[in-house]
Amino acid sequence: IPLPPPEEQAAIVRYLNYVDRRVRRYVRAKKKLIKLLEEQKQAIIHRAVTRGLDPDVPLKDSGVPWLGMIPAHWEVQRLGYAIRLQTGFPFPSTEFVQGERGIRLLRGINVTPSGIRWDEVVRWQRKPGDGLDEFALEMGDIALGMDRPIVGSGARATTIQLNDTPSLLLQRVARLRPTERLDPAFLLLLLCGRLFRDYIAPIFTGISVPHLSPQQIKGFRVPLPELKEQQEIIRQIEAEA
Predict the structure, then answer these.
(1) How far is Cα 59 from Cα 46, in angstroms, rounded to an integer?
(2) DSSP labels, 2-13
(3) What distance in Å separates the CA atoms of residue 66 and residue 131, rounded to the nearest whole number?
(4) Three-state SS for 114?
(5) Cis bond upstream, residue 166 (ω within 30)
(6) What angle in degrees, to the nearest 10, is found between the helix axes of 194-204 and 184-192?
(7) Over the chain, what is the mean pLDDT?
(8) What's the number of CA atoms in the CB half-sphere (13 Å) around residue 82?
């Protein structure tokens, strides 16, 4: 090993300790900034999906405690009326296949607030007439992890992209497929914002392992503007946040 004199060794150690302290301060500052930006983004989303874009629009009481006042021309609907919900199939782990032979199964651990992660993959070998077509995922579907749906970085909800297909839905994951009344991007904003968090907070109070049921997902009451206004809100949020 290279061995400088003891005095130089001590100087190197002092210098590295100094650099380490500076790096740690820098990382803390960056984390604080990221948290503030995320809070700002959440505030922008929350206001847009509950009040719309017109600051002078007449308001009405939504009748929902976690929702409050909404534009007078908006509806409040249970989410179940605006989506087609499908929960996953209980594929037995003893029949998972290895390698690239089978189709990927979307598990809860694959669903993150920032997208689908396929770093841990299990697969299933499909057979003709196996009756699994209803569990197939399509681009544009919204996937929601039903176990611990809220984590530190947000809701475990994300949009299925082209590279996430083909795949099948495993149990404890829900697929939300919007009807023509609801834009998929607006649905994702509703799930990833404060409204969904405020809705499920009292449901999970005192529960050690939070788990959403299909009925609880369908029972989420949401503000629902017309489709055109939903799309205007989406464009504005993309520009601001």
Answers:
(1) 16
(2) ----HHHHHHHH
(3) 40
(4) coil
(5) yes
(6) 50
(7) 93
(8) 24
Give bridge partners of residue 123 from the DSSP assignment: 97, 104
134-170, pLDDT tens digit by residue?
A: 999 999 999 999 999 988 778 899 999 999 999 999 9
Helix (H) or strand (E) holding 235: helix 227-240
Amino acid at 179: T
Tell me how crowded residue 114 is: count the other CB atoms within 10 A of its CB.
9
Sheet containing strand 142-145, strands side by side: 83-87, 173-178, 142-145, 157-159
Q: What is the pLDDT of residues 95-117, one digit of tens each?
A: 999 877 899 999 999 999 989 99
Q: Is 230 exposed, middle or buried (0-12, 13-18, 19+ CB in 10 A)?
A: buried
Q: Which of 51, 41, 42 is nearest to 240 (CA)?
A: 41
Q: Which of 5, 144, 24 is nearest to 83 (CA)?
A: 144
pLDDT of residue 38: 84
Radius of gyration of the chain (CA): 23
* CA distance linking residue 227 with residue 6, whole number of Å: 73
- Structure tokens of 241? 């946040």
DSSP bridge pairs for 159: 142
What does the pLDDT read at residue 7? 96
Which residue do the tokens 């409050």 mark?
68
Encode 119-146: b = buried (16+ Cβ within 10 Å), e = exposed. Answer: eeebbbeeeeeeeeeebbbeeebbbbbb
**pTM of the predicted model as reported, rounded to 2 decimal places:** 0.84
